[in-house]
Amino acid sequence: MIGELQSKPLTNTILIGLGTNGPFSQSQFDQIMHIIGTKREVYFINTNVDQDWQEEVNDMLSSGSKRYNNVHVIDWNNYSAGHENWFWDGIHPNIQGRQIMVDFVGRNIIADEKY
């Protein structure tokens, strides 16, 4: 993902969904923010996965949003908690879950826009 950020033109609003395939470090977060800078709004969708690293990643994103004024965390983990019917396997959103996730993410970004 970091290589893609370096090789493509970036828009003023960037959405990053970490997914559920593994941990994400503070160093990786800082690398991404170094590439993106502070002039763009950056939205991270936190992770919802029953793995020991979930809380560490979500806490790191939360603390990162306090260090960078242009970083926002979309709390998919909290919003989707208790909705097992939104997932195929408890991890990957099914069709209904994807629709709900897209709506939730969109509403968060729109609510945060500065006019």
CATH superfamily: SGNH hydrolase
**Domain count:** 1
- By DSSP (H or I, 4+ residues per run), the number of helices equals 5
| Widest sheet: strand ordering | 1-2-3
Mean pLDDT: 91
As residue ranges, the low-confidence spans are none
Order of helices and strands: HEHEHEHH
End-to-end separation: 30 Å
Q: State the secondary-structure class.
A: alpha/beta
**Largest beta-sheet characterization:** 3 strands, parallel
Using the CA coordinates, give the radius of gyration.
14 Å
Shape descriptor reads globular
How many E strands?
3
Organism: Lactobacillus rodentium
Protein name: SGNH hydrolase-type esterase domain-containing protein
Task: Describe this structure as you would to a colleague.
- By secondary structure, this protein is α/β, with parallel strands linked by helices.
- It has one domain (2-112): Rossmann fold (3-Layer(aba) Sandwich), CATH 3.40.50.1110.
- Helices cover 47% and strands 12% of the residues.
- It is built from 5 helices and 3 strands, in the order αβαβαβαα.
- The protein has helices at 2-7, 26-36, 54-67, 76-80, 95-112; strands spanning 13-17, 41-45, 71-74.
- The radius of gyration is 14 Å and the shape is globular.
- It starts with a helix and ends with a helix.
- The model has no long low-confidence stretch (mean pLDDT 91).
Q: What is the topology?
A:
Elements: H1 2-7, E1 13-17, H2 26-36, E2 41-45, H3 54-67, E3 71-74, H4 76-80, H5 95-112
Parallel strand pairs: 1-2, 2-3
